[in-house]
Write a structure and sequence with these properties.
The chain is mostly helical. It has two helices and no strands. Keywords: Cell membrane, Coiled coil, Membrane, Protein transport, Translocation, Transmembrane, Transmembrane helix, Transport. It holds the Pfam family TatA_B_E.
């Protein structure tokens, strides 16, 4: 898509008609501020990425991570079993068995 002189002239004319010659400096000033803020934020995002890449790892070895994962799984299984026992105890308390 090539923009020639007639197309650019029409765009400029449309901008003048849309904003008016009195509001045009304010509009261009606010557009410039917005672009500066946007560029600053984009630079900040690049800096964050660079800092994250340069940050040291957590220092946990893979075997220690596996051990922690296994311990977490065992603890979760124990908690699930305890919840099941508590639910059975509540059910027994609500509906006691009559002696035969």
């Amino acid at each position: 898509m090539n923009l020639g002189a007639p197309e650019i002239g029409l765009i400029v004319l449309a901008v003048f008609l849309l904003f008016g010659y009195k509001k045009l400096p304010d509009a261009s000033r606010s557009l410039g501020r917005s672009l500066r803020i946007f560029k600053g934020e984009m630079g900040g995002m690049k800096d964050d990425d660079a800092r994250a890449a340069a940050a040291p790892s957590s220092g946990v070895s893979p075997s220690a991570a596996r051990d922690l994962a296994a311990e977490a799984a065992e603890a979760e299984a124990a908690a699930l079993e305890a919840r099941a026992r508590a639910a059975r105890a509540r059910a027994d308390a609500q509906h006691p068995q009559l002696p035969a």
